[in-house]
Every structure is written in structure tokens, then in C-alpha cells.
Amino acid sequence: xxxxxxxxxxxxxxxxxxxxxxxxxxxxxxxxxxxxxxxxxxxxxxxxxxxxxxxxxxxxxxxxxxxxxxxxxxxxxxxxxxxxxxxxxxxxxxxxxxxxxxxxxxxxxxxxxxxxxxxxxxxxxxxxxxxxxxxxxxxxxxxxxxxxxxxxxxxxxxxxxxxxxxxxxxxxxxxxxxxxxxxxxxxxxxxxxxxxxxxxxxxxxxxxxxxxxxxxxxxxxxxxxxxxxxxxxxxxxxxxxxxxxxxxxxxxxxxxxxxxxxxxxxxxxxxxxxxxxxxxxxxxxxxxxxxxxxxxxxxxxxxxxxxxxxxxxxxxxxxxxxxxxxxxxxxxxxxxxxxxxxxxxxxxxxxxxxxxxxxxxxxxxxxxxxxxxxxxxxxx
Length: 380
Hints:
Strand order of the largest sheet: 1-2-3-4-5-8-11-12
Number of helices: 12
Radius of gyration: 22 Å
Structural class: alpha/beta
């Protein structure tokens, strides 16, 4: 145990170590999904401080919450904002689309860097077809409105898809879109190639493992050492499922005549808790998945089919969201609890400012440190 006289020096060295560790770890350039289906989340201004301390500079919203956009004024954070599925039909009218831009983008873009609008989320859904006909017209109307207002060079227009749009994903070179979506995807891809915007996919290897835990190797979906698989057509070797999924989407896009569209991952993650029938949904698997994913992002890896194009990923999600419907897993994808403490350690150190009552009483302390540093303190 350290002597009392040596403690000040040890504390100084600890703080120096903390700073150095944070500078190394927080150089990882990934985006984060900031969902808000909860009644216990910290205020947007406190979230802004947390993300600033984590050096996260890319955030994806599912709406255009003015409280969030105002809280991040002059923060140098790039925002993707969302336009909900229920608004698509209304947005096919150019007047309505321009009104929406003037209400949700123009008042904030001078201070908050809005770089993209995601028009709808997982609209191409075999179980819910009502919004499909409105998707492309809404995207076109939003883009035209941005052009009319001189914002189309600053703000991209795209939409996010589920991997369910694929009819074939194995092997990756045989990736193909489901025929039932072809009438929507072909013109959508043509439009996106014309305006040069990325194709967004919500990709969750967890779902594949959950569906077939006896057939899908856990190490393959967690980026852990494994034999992997080799595509028999391209002879490319895959050591994880996410990269295979990305390349399957590239193959499907190519089959529709396009090699000029980038694929980006708008959501991926792993739940830290699940119901009894949700295989693999636990804290340790979530920690391994996201820690390994962040490491690969830091290494600027590309997929086997696109080795020179670093993977571009938005992790799902920043917080656990206690009001999300569905199985337990849906409420447990967050890297952080709403009180600002990490659900598990992936090497990120951040600070959520303390909250005080009107009387000036401290309500909650929110200094977040990694488990390894706590271990170091215990040794002093």
C-alpha cells in the first residue's frame, strides 16, 4: 500500500494517466444514436457535455427535437436528423416539405451542424406496406426544398433500411434485394446516385445469432477470433458477420446497376439484457461486441470487398430507453444508463455534469471512469 506522503504524487500520475488514456481512446470516430423513448433521460444540455467529454462529434436523432438542436449550438457536432414515417405522405407535397425545412432546419443550422436528413426509418417493411409509395416522393420533395433554400450542399437526404430488404445475404457476393421491394429500390437508388448520398442500413448481427444460436458461431458475430467464412465466388475471407452483411448490401446495389453509392451503417449494437428466449442478450456479449467494433473503427478498417473504404458506423445507442415497446432487449441497447454511468466498459471515459436541485443540493454525481482505473485506485 502506498504511504501517505506518496499519495499526492500518485493522484497526479493517475490524473495524467486518465488524460492520456482518454486522448487515445476518444480518438475513435464513430457516431452515436441518441434515442429518446424514455422518461428518465438527462437534459439535452447535459448530454451535450457528456458527448463533448467523450469527443463524440457525430449524432443521429430520430426526429428534429429543437431542444436538442439548441443545446448543441456551437458544439461542432454533426447531426443527422429524422423525419418520421408518419410524416411521409404529408412530405410528398413540396409546400409541406419546404415548411418542414423552414421550421426544423433553417432556424438551427447556423449554430448546429445539421448534415443529413433521414426521411423515414425502415419504411420498406413486408409487414407494414402503407408508407412505401410515399418514400421516394418525400425524399425528392425534401431535397428540392433544400435546393430552393440553398441548403442542398450542406444537408444530405437519404433513408435508413432494415436488412430485411435483402432476399439473399450469403455468400456476400450473392447479395440481392427482395423482389417485392425492387419497384421502390431501383428508382430510389437512381435518385441517390444522382444526388450523391449514402445508402443507410440498420445491421444487427445479434438478430442472426438470436434466431439461430446453435448454427451461428457466437465468436463470428462478436468480432472474436474464429475460422470465419470464405466467399466461394470472390474468395474473400470474412472474420465477422457485420462486414459480410455490408458487402452483401454492396452486391445487391451492384445488381441494380450501381457501383457509385456508399453503404453506411446507421445502426448496430448489442443488447445488454434480454428475455429468457433472447439468446445472447447479456452484458458481457454487449461489451465484447461494442468494444471490438470500436477497435475496428479506430483502425479504419474496410470490408473485404471495400478494403480502402473505412467502415462508417453509428452505434445504437447512447442510453437505455425505458419506454421502448417490445421485448426486454429493446430497452437495453444503451452504452449508458440515464444517470450517466456506463452499462459496461468499452474504454470510454466521459462526464455527465452534476444535477442540482433548486435549493442547491446535489442530486446525482456523474463522473464516469473505467473499471481499470477503479482497480488502480484500489491498489493505492
